[in-house]
Specification:
CATH superfamily of the largest domain: Outer membrane lipoprotein wza domain like
Structural class: alpha+beta
Largest sheet: 6 strands, mixed
Strand order of the largest sheet: 1-10-9-11-7-8
Number of domains: 2
Oligomer: single chain
CATH architecture of the largest domain: Roll
Helix content: 10-25%
Number of helices: 4
CATH class of the largest domain: Alpha Beta
Shape: elongated
Length: 206
């Protein structure tokens, strides 16, 4: 007969093997919270609104949207690429373009409406109240995303939700527990989001 320690070890090994087999069969891994993304400078994206201020030249200072092709147009500068640049980089580019018409222009760019780069947006699909794409923010958590989309619908199967994440060019599916987070207040289920994450909230089948 097995001793108590041997029996407990056998049970533990069996449960571990079953858990691993379950993950392998679904292709989904249980999400473990990862360190937040290291903060970086905000990159302007299509759909952002920017305020261009040219010192002592109010006639060419204005607010413009970044077009879907990632470019902007101002009275003296046409089709200037803006997407993928910081506000400082764009300001220097505008100064270079305006230097043909204004002596030593001084430009400040302020982003007033945030959408961000397409590949960095957080997307929420399925049984959310307001499925949508959200601009990623430094330190963004799963709870932040759920607040932005108004939570999940009454038909959602929250504990079967997944985050689809691309790491080093490979796609991962991470299991998340939305019901535990929203209904039970289990903050261990409040994971850190990463740029480009897709939160999939499936429908519950009764």
């Amino acid at each position: 007969m097995f001793g108590t320690k041997k029996w407990l070890a056998l049970v533990s090994a069996t449960l571990t093997a079953l858990a691993l087999a379950g993950c392998a069969s679904t292709g989904t891994t249980v999400a473990a919270d990862s360190p937040p993304v290291v903060p970086t400078d905000y990159l302007i994206g299509p759909g952002d609104n920017i305020n261009i201020i040219v010192w002592r030249n109010p006639e060419v200072s204005l607010s413009v949207p970044v077009r879907p092709d990632g470019k902007i147009t101002t009275p003296l500068v046409e089709d200037l690429p803006a997407a993928g640049k910081t506000s400082t980089q764009l300001a220097r580019d505008i100064e270079a373009a305006l230097a043909k018409y204004i002596q030593q222009p001084v430009v400040t760019v302020v982003v007033t409406g945030f959408v961000g780069m397409y590949q960095d947006q957080i997307r929420v699909i399925g049984q959310a109240i307001k499925p949508q794409a959200l601009p990623y923010r430094n330190g963004m958590s799963l709870m932040d995303v759920l607040i932005a989309v108004g939570g999940v619908s009454e038909f959602a199967s929250g504990n079967k939700a997944q985050i689809i994440r691309t790491v080093d060019g490979k796609q991962q599916k991470l299991a998340v527990r939305l019901d535990d987070l929203l209904k039970s207040g289990d903050m261990s289920a409040n994971l850190s989001m990463r740029p480009g994450d897709v939160l999939v909230v499936p429908e519950s089948f009764f």
